[in-house]
Amino acid sequence: MTRYFDDELLELNKKILEMSAEVETTIANSIKALRELSREKAEAVIKDDDRIDQIDLEIEEKCLSLIALYQPAATDLRFIVMSMKIATDLERIADLAVDIAQRVLEMADKPLLKPLIDIPKLATLAQGMVRDAINSFVNKDTELARSVILRDNEADELRNLVQSELINDYMSKDPSTAPRAVALLLVARHLERICDHATNIAEDVIYMVEAMQVRHHPETLK
Amino acid sequence: MSGTKNVIEVRDLNVYYGKFQALRSINLDIQANRITALIGPSGCGKSTFLRALNRMNDLIEGCRTEGQVLFEGKNIYDPETDLLELRRRVGMVFQRPNPFPLSVAENITYGLRVHGITDREYLEEKLYRSLQAVNLWDELKDRLYENALKLTGEQQQRLCIARLLAVEPEVVLMDEPCSALDPVATARIEDLMYELKKDYTIVIVTHNMQQAARVSDYTGYFLLGDLVEFGETHQIFTSPRDKRTEDYITGRFG
């Protein structure tokens, strides 16, 4: 039986995809801005955020009205509620891209403290996790979602590596490096937070598809 | 939700109307002080199942029952079962309010008189308590000797519930108790059910899925004579395990 309701759900799905595409682009741009220390690109990232915030509001409004008007249950309910949560995570990811862009603006006029090694690795990881989290949502692919969650440890380790290097090799040896070191440290922190939000999305996808709660239960992933 | 004890245990229940098998091998436990809702399309066995719980199907010609319904551990289909006593302890509320064409007070005391009680003080106490339990006392205390048929549909349905409570049942079976009521009256009956479950065990058949979701602790889904799925209501409505349940509650079928 086809339901009028299915058209509404399709429309919601389309909005999530639209937001996902925007978020992927904005992360890619913020990372490019970072690699090139480009003011221009950083400013573009900051500007794009308004559009993403707007879609986030539209998604929330759509979800609330679908719940109020249709009293959805089961798969439908899980899809709607998880869409709402995923939109929140996407919006946060976009905010973190803005944070990275702001660090780029702070660093842009000075020479880099050190050649970047682990931060680009972390950036690649974050970008991949977000992309796969979104694809797992699109294709309802819980295996891919699980692989995203399992990558989160790697992100934490890279962040720790960057942090201890900046503290031990730079800030404690020469306090005058602190402003530039802190900016890099924050970039690592922002990237690691992006990975956390990608992980949240992946967990929500698993709940949406399998009705199984893996949040706060890492043992269930094995 | 923590489980309570099972008041009714249904074991391998089959019910036939002539050659037609209306229920197939049903196994189900009804827990004390909980509301159990039975949902499913029309003609799939919900009401037949409900009636099997106090042997109301016996009144239907050509109806045959196999298997066991254990009420407090005793099979109600044993030949020595006292049907009057069984139906006192497992009472039923119907779709359409069916008060006797007598006064409000007589409706309440009728069952007690049938059971041989004549003590006036006791009857008055019961009248008060039963009407109070369904929140009708304040509304009707000055109309106790009016004909019950003059009441509104909702009041009549409440009265029927009060009439049942007067004989001190343990289980209340409700067959679509709100289908003849408007949404406001329905909400009030639902609130009443919530209050009643402190003292009684309730089993309700409903076509209104949102009603099942709102009021019940456990939900069973019947389809073509099978109990497809039974579980805690929140589980059934957020993550049903069976595809057929999923299709029904999301409106893809039915």
How would you describe this structure to a colleague?
The complex is a heterodimer of chains A (222) and B (254). With 222 residues, chain A is mainly alpha-helical. Chain A has one domain (4-221): Methane Monooxygenase Hydroxylase, Chain G, domain 1, CATH 1.20.58.220. Chain A is built from six helices and no strands. Chain A has helices at 4-36, 39-70, 74-107, 118-138, 142-171, 178-210. Chain B is of the alpha/beta class. Chain B has a domain at 6-98 and 170-249: 3-Layer(aba) Sandwich (Rossmann fold). In chain B, the strands form two sheets. Chain B has a six-stranded mixed β-sheet, with helices on both faces. In chain B, helix 3 crosses helix 4 (120-133) and helix 3 (104-114) packs parallel to helix 6. The radius of gyration of chain B is 18 Å and the shape is globular. Chain B starts with 5 loop residues before the first strand and ends in a 5-residue tail after the last helix. The chains are: A mainly alpha (222), B alpha/beta (254). Chain A binds chain B through residues 1, 3, 5, 71-78, 211, and chain B through 209-210, 213, 237-240, 245-246, 249-253.
Tell me briefly what this model is.
With 222 residues, chain A is mainly α. Chain A has helices at 4-36, 39-70, 74-107, 118-138, 142-171, 178-210. A six-stranded mixed beta sheet of chain B has the order 6-7-8-3-9-10, sandwiched between helices.
Assigned CATH superfamily of the domain at 6-98 and 170-249 in chain B: P-loop containing nucleotide triphosphate hydrolases
The CATH C-level name of chain A is: Mainly Alpha
Content of β-strand of chain A: under 5%
- Output the CATH topology of chain A: Methane Monooxygenase Hydroxylase, Chain G, domain 1
**Which whole number gives the mean pLDDT of chain A?**
94
Instruction: Give the strand content of chain B.
Output: 25-35%
Count of helical stretches of chain B: 10
